[in-house]
Structures are given as structure tokens and as C-alpha cells.
């Protein structure tokens, strides 16, 4: 059985970004077709940062192509710009690495600089903001001394340094960055974890001097984890790196990469990156290979399936294969397994699908005329259909829903025109409660750092909070920043959304439902005392606090 | 004979233009057309006299102008005297359509901070690109 029969939720990037990547990594004639679409669609003045970094490679690949003509001048300029920036950065970093080597400190180059040296030979083609070097943990203090003697300084306030868990970021007078790592990844700062990386290191030359760089598999692992660390940033330039890394000979060892991710318990992030890679460049990571890797890890399968089941996004889970799904979810080592015959009607699947702390979904399909012609849903939400959809015939809805049981799930054929998606996102009435669940009403966070608090948010109105596919009107929780004496400092702060606007789904939070979420708090730059007034919002529509509701406050102390 | 002052100096010729970067000073140079041809010939190990002779024979650029250009490159520490003889096959002038001004200009951008901070999408001349500022920003 393959989890791919059930899994849905491939991370996505925008179509313009996708055409840019296809232009870079596809073969002719698809690459030029993609370039044509990109040129027609891109808003060059609003180019995202990931695309900006790919322009030098695009410019060199399509140097003489008349399709580039509308942006040719600026594309060439961006190429020159990165050639200049990266050459200066690389020159300063090379001197630093030479000094570290002369001091007897072993170094291992990775990320952008390693990819530039191994794959491009031209720094302009692999823009980077800093150079990343791994040293042995025992050498960090001596390495810092060497860097400081060369004029490099710790980039941030000194107080932050003791909180660095995997690298210290240095900067020099030319504003070039040099990140001194003692662990390769932020997510796995564990003694000895990088030993395999050191053992697999390869040798190359940097301006005539021998240097160590990470193996292709390790470069790919780190590139993919870094690329998907913040999925909301929708970065995609790493996909070009990975395509280049994988395509050079000899054959790329995906199993090694998968094993290394397993050792670090990072397969869920890696899988996310692999799905995106597979969907955009299937020749680089074939579906069959991805299947084989993922289905070999039942823990990962459970982890991937849980949110789908809890949010009722399970239309693709074939009923006839439910036994297989349950056997996949049920760990054979748990006590549940031995008592499964006593509890035939209970399963993790059932438990998770009734998880009251998650938003829920109803899947719909639409015919050629744009009318809903079927629903896939959990029967317990049948009474909510009139709150979620515009219903042409309320009496008919009663007859329809009476045909189905109170529990379970399945598909309903809908007569076209009978149900329609709501035509706007505004509800007649809003009401919510926020509870701080772990007693975190006082927080102490270092300046510029991020912390989380656990919240329960209750929809205590009579209406479903729903999010239509593609709608920006997402529901979420956020806070407003006040000084200790109550002066408003900044109203808008980052949001934590409860659900996404997924294609083909109506996402909703039923009346009375309690959602569990973890909200990120971003500490201001200036140390001091603050008050955070929590709030619920419907993006682009309203703040709940403006509807005569009061929510808890958090006292925040920002330390240097 | 000369060679590039490597590793201090980084250079690349692309699309008929040579970019030369002095990583020690942060100065950014561009040369084009015949200047780019002469640069490429010099760093490939051609003797300056050979280059001058060819251009003189073609009646394109006077030897004194080439001499001055090479002096400018050396004064800027972009090239240094070669430590070994790397002379290659005979030099010949490629056909260049853009010969309206066979002028050997070494264009220097010396304000490192300005170069780094200039936004290469919004603050540049749309036709020429970075580092040529748009008229609105200059």
C-alpha cells in the first residue's frame, strides 16, 4: 500500500515561480515554453526574493533569446550585481578560511559557497547572502579568535550569542556575512550528529587552495530542510540547487539522504520538500522512489495522515482500504494492537477524525456549469450544511440529510443548483473566547526572538467560521503590542491562522468548537516591558475585539 | 606579458562585455567591444606588441592608445607582469559589429557602498541595468 493513494496537500509555489523554475531545469522545448509564460506573467517590479536570486542563472541560460528582451537590461544588471556582491563576499570568506586552516582548524564548506564551487565555478550563478562554514564544536572558540583578528565581528548584540545553538553569524566592514557553524542544522544541535557529514566530506579547490565541501547528499539534505523551514515564505530557489546536485554523475544516493534525515528526525520536513521537488521536477525525484522511501516508515505515515484525518480531508481515503489504513495507523507495538479485537469499532482513524481541536472540511466537486454536484463529508456535519452553503430548497435539504446516518462519512450526489458556495465571507454575528492553556500569561523573551504560547480558541457564536477556497478571509489569532502603561505601539502583528483556503474544500469551525493552537510571539527589538492584547481576526474583514469582545492579555518582558 | 592579478581580481566576459572586480578595493570595472578583446588577449598570454601590431595593421586603433589602455589596467592593479611565459597562438582581431567607437575605455565604479545599496530592479536604468542608475535616482 502506498501512502500516496491517500495523501493530499502537496506544498505549492505560485505559477509564475513554477514557470521560472521549469525554464531553468526543464529540457527543450518545455524550458522555452515556460520562459515565454514567465515573461508574459511576471511583474518584474514585484519580483519575489527567491525568483530574484534565480535571475543570473536564467540570464545565462537564455542569453541570446529574444523572449528575454523586455527585461534584458535589468536581468543583465542583476547578473552583474550578484557577480559583484558574491565575488567580494567569496574573496573575504576565502581569506578567512585560509586563516582558519593556517591555525589548524578543520573547516567544511556548505550551502551556497559549496554549491557555487562544486557546480557553478562562477559565484554570480549562485547568489548568497553569507558564507557558511562548519567547524568541529571543540574549535569554535579558536575559530572566533581567528575571525576577530581578521576584522570580522559578531553580527548581533553580544547578549544573543549565548543563545546561539548551532552557529554564530559574523560580519565584516564590507557587510559580508560569515556564518560559523558547529552544527550543520538548526533543527539538530546534537553532539556527534554531524560525524557522518564530516566523514562524507569531499575535496575541491578554491582559487587553487584545497578545501573540504559537503557531499552532494548532505548539501541536498541541508538545502531542502532550509528551503522548507518556513513553508509560508514559499521559497523555491533551493529547487534549482537540488536539481543541479542530483543530476550530476555519479548517481545520487537518495537512500543515504533519507537515512540521515531519519537520524535527525527531520523526515517530515524532508518529505514536504521532496513532494514539492517531485511535483515540479519528477525526473530528479521519481514518484516510485519517493513511494518506496516513505512507505518504509510507518511512523512518518502516521504523522502525515493524522492532520488529514483530524481535519476530515479524507475523501481520497478509499473506504475499501480502511483496514489497510487502520493497520498503518495502529502501531503493532502498542497495547491497542493486542486489544484491537475487543475494540473493533474504535480505531485511531475514528478517534482522530473526531478530534475536536482541529478545523473540519467538506470536499465538493463542481460541474462544467460551476455548480456543486457532489459533497464528501462526515455525516455528523450534515446539520451544518444550511449554515455553510446557500441552499435553494431548505425542505429538500431536510429530506436529503435524513437519508444518512449520524456517524461515518461518505459522498452525497447533489442535484446541480441545490447547494451553492456562500457568495461572501461576512457572517451576521461574531463571537469568540481565547484561553491561555498553559498559564503563560507572563513571558520573558530575548529581543528579536520568537516564542510560542498555547491557546484554546472557542467559536462561541451560532455561526460556522468558514473559509472558501482561494479566499483571503482566513480566521486566525494574533495580538496587539502595547507599552507597559497601555500605549498602543503596534496594532498589526504576525497571525496564526486556524485553517487554509484549500482548493475544492470548504473549511470550517462549527459553533461551540474549541481549537487548539500555538501562537508565535515575536519579541520587539527594544528590551523592556510590554502588554500583548490577544485578539481573533477574520483577515481582511474584521478584528473580533472591535465587536465588543475582550480577550486575555499577556505580560511580556523583553530581555537584551 | 601580463596576467590577471589573481586571486585579488575576478573577471568574466559575457555578452560582449567584460566585468572586472577588484575584491581588495571593491572597485568594479567594465570594458566592452575592442577593450574587451584586448583584455581577453592579454589574460590569454598574448604579447602587447602582437596586439598593437594587429590593430595597427587593421587600421583600427593606434598603438599608443592600446599602450595607454594596458598602462591603465596595470595602474589599477588589474593585471601584473606574468611570472611565466603563457603565450598562445597568434592573435587576430575578431569581427565586431559594434565598432562605431573603437575607444578603449576602462569604466570604473568606485563607490562600493553605493554599488551595494543600489536596488538592481527599481533604481536602475531599465535598458542598461545595474550599475547604471535610472535618471530618477541619479
How would you characterize the overall build of this protein?
The complex is a heterodimer of chains A (560) and B (138). Chain A folds into 4 domains: 78-295, 2-Layer Sandwich (Beta Polymerase, domain 2), CATH 3.30.460.40; 298-353, no CATH class; 360-420, no CATH class; 432-559, Immunoglobulin-like (Sandwich), CATH 2.60.40. In chain A, a hairpin with a 5-residue loop joins β4 (167-171) and β5 (177-181). Chain A starts with 14 loop residues before the first helix and ends with a strand. In chain A, strands 14, 17, 18, 19, 22, 23 and 24 form a 7-stranded mixed β-sheet that branches. The longest helix of chain A is centred in the first third of the chain and has 31 residues, at 72-102. Chain A is of the alpha+beta class and 560 residues long. The mean pLDDT of chain A is 90. Chain A has 19 helices and 24 strands. By secondary structure, chain B is α+β, with helices and mostly antiparallel strands. Chain B has one domain (2-117). In chain B, 30% of the residues lie in helices and 20% in strands. Chain B has helices at 33-43, 48-58, 63-75, 112-117, and strands at residues 2-4, 9-14, 17-22, 27-32, 79-81, 107-109. In chain B, a hairpin with a 4-residue loop joins β3 (17-22) and β4 (27-32). The radius of gyration of chain B is 16 Å and the shape is globular. The N and C termini of chain B lie far apart (40 Å). The relative contact order of chain B is 0.19. The model of chain B has no long low-confidence stretch (mean pLDDT 88). The A-B interface holds A 44-45, 47, 52, 60, 63, 73-81, 83-85, 87-88, 90-92, 94, 122-124, 174-175, 207-208 and B 6-8, 10, 12, 14-15, 19, 21, 23-24, 26, 28, 30, 112, 115-116, 118, 120-122, 124-132.
